[in-house]
Each structure stands twice: as structure tokens, then as C-alpha cells.
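I am writing to request your help with a piece of structural work I have in hand. A protein sequence and the C-alpha cells that stand for its backbone fold form the material at issue. Please examine both parts with care and let me know of anything in them that strikes you as inconsistent. The record follows directly beneath this note.
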Amino acid sequence: MLVALLERTEHGGMLRRARLIGDDSDQQWHAEDEPVSPLQAAEQLASWLAERARAAEGRGASISMLVLDLDGAACSWVTSPSADPRAVEALVRQGAGEYAGSTSPAMTLGADAEIPGAASIQPLRERREQHSPRDRLAVVAMPDAAARVVIDQLDRLGVRVGAVVSFWHAVALAWDPSADPTRAVTRAGDHVVADDAPVGAHIVIDPSGRLVWAWSKRGAVLAAGVTRLLTDDDAVQVGHDDVGRLAAEWLAWAAQLGFGPTRVSCVVPPLDPPDGALSNEALGEALTRAWPNAAIDLAVRDDPVADTLLAARAHAPDADRLASDPARSMTALSGRPGRAHRGLFRWLGAALVVASVAAGIGAWRAAAAASAARTRAAEVRAEYDAAATAYVDPQIQQDHGTIAALQDAAQKERAKLEAGKREASLMPVLRELDTVSLVLGSPDVEIREITLEQLRAAVVVTVPDIKAYEDLRSAMRDIGGSSVQWEGHTEQEGGRIRVRFTGTWIEPERSP
């Protein structure tokens, strides 16, 4: 598998150099000394990459990972009402607003952030994660116009690009032990006894003069940054002030995100500093003092950039899962439409044309069948009229209108009869009042309320004791000639018992 690194200049607008690294190869491309347009440089680089990829892998060659350097890139925090990438991009491009604070996010994400098409803007968080409207989001702005031209030209040349990542993503994938599940667990025999996935900080010093850092967890970038370093005779120098600035930047991020790294890994080239600069050992000690209570791992590599790219390729998940995660790749570039998409659209268009032709043929056949059915119906009607004329008594034919009128009148009368059956019956309210009065006339019964309506029946009384209540309830249940089914409920009221009877009208039977 091949991994390519694009190195740019002019804030990411011009291609300067490219590296194509394989299992046992490291080839480099340099832009021509004579000035060419960015489009010409991108086309030349794409042709060079395609030629080298085919030479290494033959027909159907691909570049598994395309890495963009950090020239012109920025990572900063933004307060957004939503973690949806489209909402975050709109907020950044529109500048200051209710959620952006008093300054535009483009002040920290770069001048190109407000120009559509000049840079990709994405939050380092998946949309499905829980998000509060006032939460701080780490957002990356990556100038990528030249990279888009290279990807499109590679697609035209038949070379597929698996996933596009920034160098920050590559650093996290390469040096975060929890990025690869097999490296983040402790085993005892065949059993997992521990799962370690702390927040880690990873530093890679580029010999060209950059200190690149990224915070990550399980290989997902949480925050990132890049710092320029002094170079002398192509040798990079790191001073105490550089470590101090790095610690201050980390403290600011920790204050915004609410957490910080508990482990720091540093991959550096051999440092042979002049007076005032730090050696490899001194750099490790300075990092320990600047970020105490964290485990510091420092590795010296002859080519930290190439080692980072190879390690990232080795520990990256499959291309589809990598390309869809904003914390592990540049999703807009990774999902850029290519030949496969265009082929799918062509096949989909052809399928729609075939479906429309089939639908047209079906409609024509249906219309022909309907016309034949109408013709046959007319023929059957004509045959029926002929049979009626031939075999039915002429007197009955003449009286056909009279018979139809009688049938219509009978139907109207039947409808009236059915409507009359559905009319609601009037309840015998006065008769029920007389019936209930016979029971409630006892001296022990004190009437508080009687309600007898067409839809509701209720009686509220008080009695002196439980025995009187039981007698009254039995009398109300067994009252003769009543049209209401009574149910009683008791409640205490002073020294007497308050009884509420609620009744359900029994609809009288209708005469047949």
C-alpha cells in the first residue's frame, strides 16, 4: 500500500513537494523551478503519482492514504449551537454572530476560512455525539484547492485515493496506542484484562522547521496545533521558549475542552543544538517540567515524517470507516465524487430511462385494454337492449319508468324509517323523580341535591349512620319502576354520612 504526502506553500495554495512512500520505497517530486500555475503543478504531480503508483502496483493501482501538510492549516475552538458540520461551516464562513463571540472564528482559523471553496472546514467531532449549544468545538480549517485538483486528476488517470487526512490525523493514527485496539489492551493468555485509552498528546518535529502536535483518544483527534521552529543549516532547533509556548497553548485548550493529556509521546529527529537550544535529552526534561504528572515518551528517528506516515498507514482502519470519521480524516475530500460515482450515476440514469420506457409501454397497453373494454361494454349493452326488445313484453317496457319511480319512492321511505329508528329516545325524567321521591322521603334522609337530566342522573343526600346508608342503598338499587341504575358512594361530613348516588339511564325498549 502506498501513502503520499503533499507539501505546499503560499498558505496551502501552491504545491512545493510530494513524497510517495511504500513498503520499501520513498520517492519525491519537486515542483519545477520555473513558475507554473497551481493547476499545471497539480496536473504534473497527479501524473507523477499515477505513473509511480502503476509502476509499484500495476493496473488498478491506488493510493491508500493521501496526507496534506499543515501549511496554511489552523485548528481552533468555536462555540456552535450544533455539531453538524454544515452548521459549523456556515457559522465560520458568516463570521461573528450570537454563538461566535465578539470576534469572527476566521480570526483564528485563517483568512481563507470565510471564502467558500478555499478551505475545508470541519469539526473534530462526529454528529451523533451529544452536544450542548454552548459547548466548545475543536474545528479544523484546511486549505485544499490544490489537493482537490490532484485528487480529481488522479481519478481521471484511473488511480483511486482511499482516504485523505491531514498530518494531524496521521500523527494521531501513528502514535496513539489506543488507535489500534490490539495495542490498547493488556492480555493474559487469550483474555483481555485491561483496556487503556487515555487522552494522549503526540508531538512530531519536522526537520523542515515545524513542531506538530495533536491530542487524541483511540486515534481520534481532539485538538491540534503547529508551531514554527528555527532552522540553521537545515537543522531544526528547539528552545525553552518553544516548550513554554507549547505548554501555554495546551493549557488554553484544556481550559476550553475541560480535559488534558495524561501521556505525551514525542518523535523527534536527532538534535545537535548550538548554545541555547535543547538536545534530545534536554527536550524530554523540559517537556516533563512543562507538563508535569504526565508520562513522557521520546523517540529519536532519522526521518520522523516518513515514520509517521508508515505508522499511520499501518494502524489506520479500513478506508471506508476512516473516510467517514471527521476526527480521523478530512471527510469532504475523502468522499469526493470520482469515476465510481459518475459510473453509478450513468447506470442509474440508464435504469431510469429503461424504467420510463417500460412504464410508457405499460401505459400504452393499459390504454389499449381500456379501449377494448369500453368497446366490449358497448357491445354487451347493445346485445342486452336487443334481447329486451325481442323477449320482454312491450307493456312492461313502456312501464319501465313507472317501476323505477316506485322503486325510488320505496327507497326514500325506507331511508326515513331507518333514520327514525336512530333518533334518541326521551328519558322519563318526571316519572323517575316521582319514583326516587318515594325512597328519599324517609325522615333520616336529608336531601342535598337531585339532578335528573337527559344525559345525567345524580342524587346527593346525608344519613345519620351506616345502617341507614345500607338501607337506603338497597332501596335505591331495588326501587320498582325506576329507569335509572343507581350506584352509591359515601364520604364523611361532620357527624353524618354524605352519600352520592350516580345513575345510568336504562334506555326504554322500542316497539317493533
Q: What stands out?
A: The longest helix spans residues 339-391. The chain has three domains: 3-73+108-113+116-336, 342-421, 429-505. The longest strand covers residues 484-493. The radius of gyration is 44 Å.
